[in-house]
Amino acid sequence: MKFSPSLLAVLLATGANALGQNQTVSLTAGKGLLQLAGSGLNGQILLSANDWWGVLRVAEDLASDVGKVTGQNLTLGNWMAGGSGKRDLSAENEEEDRNAEGERDVQGRDVPTGPNGGGAGEGGTEFPEGGHVGGWGWGGSSTNGPSGTHPPSSSGHNATKMGSTGTTAYYNFNAVTSFVNYTVGPTQNFTGPTLINNSKAQTVIIAGTVGKSDVISQLISSGKLDVSAIEGQWESFISKVVTDPLPGVSKALVIAGADQRGTIFGLYDVSEQIGVSPWWWFADVPVRKAAGVWALDTIKAQGSPSIKYRGIFINDEQPALANWISANYAPGKYGVGYNHYFYSHVFELLLRLRANYFWPAIWASMFNVDDVENQPLADAYGIVMGTSHTEPMMRATNEWNIFGTEYGGNGQWEYDTNNASLIPFFKYGAQRAVPYGANSLFTVAMRGSGDTAITLTVPEAIEVLNNVVAEQRLILEEVFPETNITDIPQMWCLYKEVQGYYETGMTVPDDITLLFADDNWGNTRYLPLANGTSRSGGSGVYYHFDYVGTPRDYKWINTIQLEKTVEQMQLSYARQADRIWIVNVGDLKPLEIPINHFLDMAYNTPQWGYDSVPTWLNLWATREFGSEVADDLSSVVDRYGMYAARRKYELIDPTIYSVINYNEADAVLAQWATLATDAQAIYDKLDVAARAAFYEMVLQPVLGGQVVNQIYIAAAKNGHNSVQKRNSANTIAENVLELFKEDHNLTQRYHDLLNGKWNHILDQTHLGYEVNYWQQPMRNVLPPLSYVQSLETSLAGNIGVGVEASNATVSGDDSFHANSGNTLVLPPMDPYGPKTRYIDIFARGTAGCQWSLNSSAPYVITTPSSGNTGGNGVDTRVFVSIDWSLAPMAPNSTTVNIDITSSCANNTWGNYPAPNVQVPVNHTSIPSNFTGFIESDGHLAIEAEHTSSTNEVNGVSYITLPGHGRTLSGVTMIPVLAETQPAGKGPVLEYNVFTFTNTSVANVTLHLSPSLNQNGGGFGQYRPLKYAIAFDDETPQTIQFVANVTSELNNPDGWNGAVSDGVWGVSSGNSTTTSHNLSETGAHTLKIWAVEPGVIFQRIIVDLGGVRPSYLGPPESFRAGTDTVGSYDGTNVLGVKVNSTI
C-alpha cells in the first residue's frame, strides 16, 4: 500500500494515538457521541466473570488506562443474568475458596524485588479480507477451532470466587515439583480482578469473548450484536456502539472478540487510542491528560492478522539485561532471576503490540525452571510460548546442562549416541506444556551442543534429525492423546546448516511449520517456492535485530533501518512465509522502535508498503510524543536508521571512512552533528515528563552513535596528522580521550534516568573489537593514538603543507611523494566536478609563521590566500576554486602552480625548498542538448533512482525504495513474484552519461543491497540473484553477484564484506564489477536490468581511471538538466556542508 500525504493527514486527524488503526473513540466531545469517561462520570466496563482470566485482566488495564488519561478509573462490573446476583459457576468456573497461600497477585505487581507497573494499549485496523493465515485452528481457547481441527486446549484454569459485593477471577495451575520427572504440586492461582456484582455504575463499555462470555452471548441471542464478520476468525474483534444493549443500559460501546486474544486486542485498541502507549512501562512514555473519552458512532470489524504467530526472542541477554534483572529481582535457584514478575511486563507489552508469541531468554536462563510460575502466567495472559531454534520440546538449553545427567547415558547432546536419555528429556518438556497446550508451539528437531552444527556428515545428520522428529512426534501424540498430531502446533527452524539439510533433500512432515532463518544480518536466505506454499504447516521467518557471531557481534543499541525491514518482510509475505514471524531482539531495550515496527508489519503487512516508513514513523512519533514534534521527530529517527545501518557500530574502526578522499569522513560527521542538533532541539521542546522516554528511544542512540563515529574518525585523523607530523595530532588525541569520557557519560545518564530504573541496560561493550574476531571486548577500549613531539620543530620547518586526496606533505620527505620533492598535486578541477578542492597549512614546530599563496593564473582562486599558523595561530584549510568565466575556453587542459611562502626563517623550510601545489584545470564542455551524468575526475557516480528513463514490460517494472540503503534509496523490480527476466528482455534502467576519457577498460561497480539467493532450491541455485549490464548496443553481461553456496555450513563468497558494508560491491570482492570498452568519448547510455526480483540497486560507480578509495564512493556526478555549473557542489557523497576547520 502506498501512503499519500492525504492519507497520513486522515490517519492523524482520526486519532493517530492508535498507530495506523481506524479509530473507535475520541478525546474530543461531539454531537451524539457516547461519553465513556470524564466530567465526573462514574462509568464501568461490564464483563462476565466466566470470561478468560486474561481478558478480565486486560479489562482492568483498560479501566486503569482511562484513569491515567482522565483522572478517574472505570470500574469493572459483573453481568448477572436476570440481575439476581446469582449464577451457576459450575464446571470450568467452579466457585471455591482458595488457599491464600496459593494465590499470586500478578495484577497489582507491587513487587518489592523489582520494578512495578500497570497497563495500556495498541490499536487495530480493519482487514476486510483478513490475512492469509491458516492451520492449527484455534489458539488461546479451550474450544475447538474451525471444522475438522481439534487443537490442544488450556482448559480447567479459570475459576471465580463470589463475595458479598464482587466476584474475583482466578487462574488455577499446578506448578511442577521436579525438573527431571514430571510431577506437580497442589493447586495455586494467580489473582485477577474483582468484578462488582450488581454495580450501580453507568455501563459505558461491554466486553467479552464470543462463545465464552455470558454477556456477549446475551447480546448475540437478543439480536443486539451481529458477530458474523468475525466469528471463527483468529484473533478478530468487533467494536461498535449499541443502543439499548441490556435492560437499564441506554447505549454502550461493545467490544467482542472471536477468541481470547481477539478480545484482548480489542480492549487494548481503546487504550492506545486514548493515548496510553504500549511502551508506557518499558520505555516510560507518559500519558497525556484529557477531559474525557467518547465513543465514535462507527463499526470496526477487525480481521485476522496477516501473520498468525508474531513475536520476539530475547537473546544474547548478557551482560545488559542479565545485569538489570539481577539488580531488580531476586536471584533464581540456578542463576539470574527471570521470574514471572519480570515476564508479566513482557507479556503485557507483547499484547499491547498485538503480538502473541514469545521465545524467552536462553543463555543464563531456563524459563520454566527460573520460576515455575512463568509458563502458567504466559498461558493466563494468552501468550503462545515457544523455545528458540536450538531448544526443542519446550526445554531450555541449560536444562540439559544442569539436569541432563539425571537421565543417565553418556551425558552428550547427541541423539545418535544418547537417545535413551534425550527421549525422556524431550518427553518431560511436552508433559510440562500439556496444561497450557492452547498456548504452546513446539520447536522440534535439534542442533548440536551450544547452538552449533551437529558434528556428522550431511547424510548422517539428516538421518538423525528425521529420527529425532519422528520420536518427538510420537511423544506429542502420547501426551496429547485426544489431539491429532497434525493439529499440534510444531515448528522446525531451518537455521544455518539445517537449511542446507533441507535443500539437500531432508523431508519435513507437511504439518510442521518451516521457519526460515535470515543470515543473522537481516537478509533472508530461503523463502518458499510455489510448490512449498501449499504445506498445511506453512512457513515463517526468524529474523534478527541483534546477533552474536561472525563477522562481528551487534548488540549494543538500535542499528536497524526500517526500510530494509519493510523490503525483506514484504518479500517474505509475498512468498507466503506467513505462519510465524519472530525476531531476535537481544535485551529488548533499546530496540523499542524496530520491535514496534516489525510487529505492526506482522499484524497488517499489506498496510505497510515499500514507501510506508515515513508515515509509520510520523504516526509513532505522534503517539509517543505528540503531533507538535512528529514531523521533526520522524525525520530524525528515519535519518538515524540510515546512518546507524551504514555500518554497525561494532564494525567501525579508523580505516572505514576516508579522511583524505571526497571529504567523506567530515561529511559523515556533519550528518551526525545535524542529527544531534535536531534531536536535542526536540528534546528541549518536550515536557519534562516525556524526556526520559525520548532519551531512551531517540536522544541516547543519536548522541551515542555520533560519539562512536567521532571517536573512530578522530582516531583516523590523529593517525593521518601524525603521519604528516602535525602538532594537531596531539590535540585530536586529547579530543578522542574526551569523546571516550562522553561515551561513558551518555551511558551513565541513561542508567541514572528515573532513579536508576534502567541501570545496566547499556552495560554492553561496543568499542575496541579485535581485528578478525567477532566476540565482544571485555572492556571498552580506544583505538591506538599517536603523539608527536611538540617541544621540537620538524626538520622541514615550523609549518607544512598537505593537499586533498594525499597523505604526502611538503616541504620535507615522506613515503607518499618523491624524496626532496617540493610539489604536491591536487585532484583535477573542471566545471562538472567539485566546486572546491583544499590545501592544508598546518603547524609542525614551535613557532608561528605568516604564510601566503600565490596562484600563477588569476582564475585559480585560493580562500584565504594568507594567514598565520603555529604559535598562537591555528591550522588553516585553504579552498581552491575556479572562475570559469576567466579560464581558457573549453576544451582546454592546463596545470596551474600555487607557490607558498612563509615568514619563518626568511622563507626557508628547514633544509628543503619552498612548497608548491599544482592544480590540473580541465575546462570541458558538453553539447547543449545533453541531459544526464557527466564525467569528472576520471569517474561517474550515480544514485540508482536517478534514471534517465525506465519502462514496464508485461507488468514488470521498477520502484524506488525511499530511504533504503546507505546514501539515498534503493531501486528494485516488482512484482517480487515476477518470473526471470532474461538480459535485455525485461524492464530496463537507463542512465545517460557523457565521458571525456578514452579507455578500453571502464570498470562499472554497482552497490547492491546485501540480499541473498533466497529463491529456493539447491542452496539458492534455482534462481540466484542476477543483473545484466551494457553500454549502448553492447551485448549485455549477465552477472550472478551472489555466489552459489556449495556447503550447508557456508555463506556465499564475499558475504562477510557485504553484511559489514551493507552492500555488495565494496569489500565483498569484485562480483558487482564489470569492464566495458569506452574508447569512444561523448554520450553513452548505460543500461541495467534486474534479471531476478530481489536485486536492489543503490549506487553505480563508473571508474574511468580516477576513482579513489572510500567507503561510500565518490559524490554523485553532475547531472545536466538538473544541476547547474556554479551551484553544483559535488564535494562529498552525502551532499552536506562540512566543517571548514581542520
UniProtKB/TrEMBL annotation:
Transmembrane segments: none annotated. The keyword Signal applies. Residues 1-18 form the signal peptide. Residues 932-1116 form the Gylcosyl hydrolase 115 C-terminal domain. Residues 115-124, 131-142 have a biased composition (Gly residues). Residues 99-108 have a biased composition (Basic and acidic residues). Pfam families: GH115_C, Glyco_hydro_115. The keyword Hydrolase applies. GO terms for molecular function: hydrolase activity. Residues 143-158 have a biased composition (Low complexity). Keywords: Hydrolase, Signal. Residues 77-161 are annotated as: Disordered. This is Gylcosyl hydrolase 115 C-terminal domain-containing protein. It comes from Hyphodiscus hymeniophilus. The lineage of its organism: Eukaryota, Fungi, Dikarya, Ascomycota, Pezizomycotina.
